[in-house]
Design a protein that fits this description.
By secondary structure, this protein is an alpha/beta fold. The chain is 35% helix and 12% strand.
């Protein structure tokens, strides 16, 4: 049967890549073994994602499985319920084959993890897989799953997509339910689909959101803003778009990081600093750096963020989508010092998160718009015309 063949392919890929620390198996039985025992009769009309295998980042609850958040402080008990975003996928026929490894607490750009092992990049062995959804991206690159779910606060879906050569969508906050998903900084946290093609990503998006997106024949009539000397700008011009340069508002990063730090401290107040010894050194440094942010500084940051958003929206009136690199610099190397590279690596994705805009990472190409359908249409059009996934620098 089709779903049995899909499970067998995933199981073989898991075996081949066992040393890559791609999955977190916190329970007594591997997820794929549990799946293989389930009876799934073929329905008369197979649903949208019938026999599509997927993984979910281990920030996301699945009933009967443990949610570790990439930490040793969580996951002692099985989740009682399944996050609605996962329920939608399973109702559409998708097969969950594993919980994906990640940067501890979804806060980092390399997916190094002292508790569950550093995720390795199966496509580019000399590179880190990106973070924090590095296990999800690595699972796709390794053939363990056809698609996956990650979370993205400042680039955690898009940076791994760039490092592992896959596709990841960051939707706007609130479009996909965050129920059953562990938080980092709730103002910016989102769940996003990842896949090996824009077409597959759009198909998963349709299940998650109910929004069908079809590829246009061209981008004629669209205005595309180009930032950071995007190497693919000419491709969008060839597709019929009018191309013009724009500048990203990097001044938004100061209030953004103030808000992220303050919210992360509150997210962890029950366990930090009381259980500081159980945190990795990198996350401890980030939480310590965010200490002391009070309500006045926080309120000023929120006001400043809102003002920069409004100003950028006015400046880009008439621009339909923006294109730019995903990574702010070279992809992080395997074994690098995460603290030394995270600011540059996440420089561009963090600006986009701060602006509250949806973004599609096609490897090291990022398409940003006002609605998810806008970025998916542009990506689908480029893909249909032979546009490849750009490799990491």
């Amino acid at each position: 049967m089709e779903h049995e063949a899909a499970i067998a392919r995933s199981a073989e890929a898991i075996r081949l890549h066992r040393g890559h620390n791609i999955l977190i198996e916190a329970g007594a039985e591997p997820v794929i073994d549990r799946l293989a025992r389930r009876d799934r009769p073929v329905p008369a009309t197979p649903p949208e994602l019938w026999a599509w295998t997927f993984v979910v980042k281990d920030m996301i609850d699945v009933a009967g499985l443990r949610t570790t958040r990439g930490s040793v402080l969580y996951g002692s008990e099985e989740a009682l319920t399944t996050a609605p975003c996962v329920e939608l996928l399973e109702r559409a026929g998708a097969l969950l084959v594993g919980k994906a490894n990640q940067h501890e607490f979804a806060w980092g750009v390399t997916s190094e993890n002292p508790h569950w092992g550093d995720v390795r990049n199966p496509r580019h062995e000399h590179l880190a897989p990106g973070g924090s959804s590095g296990g999800t991206a690595a699972a796709l690159a390794a053939g363990i799953a056809r698609f996956g779910l990650g979370t993205d606060t400042g680039g955690s879906v898009r940076i791994p997509a760039a490092c592992c050569g896959v596709v990841g969508l960051r939707p706007r906050a609130g479009v996909i339910s965050s129920e059953g998903v562990a938080p980092l900084a709730p103002m910016f946290d989102v769940v996003g689909p990842m896949a090996t093609s824009v077409a597959d990503c759009a198909r998963v998006w349709r299940v998650l959101s109910g929004e069908a997106v079809e590829p246009p024949r061209s981008l004629s009539g669209l205005v595309v803003g180009v930032a950071e000397g995007c190497a693919q700008a000419g491709e969008f011009a060839d597709l019929g778009a009018e191309v013009r340069e724009i500048a990203l508002p990097y001044g938004i990063l100061s209030p953004y990081w103030t808000i992220v730090g303050a919210q992360a401290r509150r997210t962890h107040e029950a366990t930090y600093p009381a259980n500081a010894a159980s945190y990795s050194a990198g996350v401890r440094r980030k939480l310590d750096d965010a200490g002391g942010i009070g309500h006045r500084e926080y309120r000023r940051a929120v006001e400043e963020l809102s003002a920069v958003r409004a100003g950028f929206s006015a400046e880009t009136a008439g621009v339909d989508v923006l294109v730019m690199p995903t990574l702010g610099g070279p992809a992080p190397r395997a074994g690098c010092d995460e603290a030394a590279v995270r600011g540059e690596v996440g420089r561009i994705t963090s600006v986009v998160s701060a602006l509250g805009l949806p973004a599609l990472a096609i490897g090291d190409l990022q398409v940003v718009g006002r609605r998810e359908a806008d970025v998916l249409r542009a990506g689908l059009c480029r893909e249909a015309r032979g546009g490849a996934i750009p490799a990491p620098r």
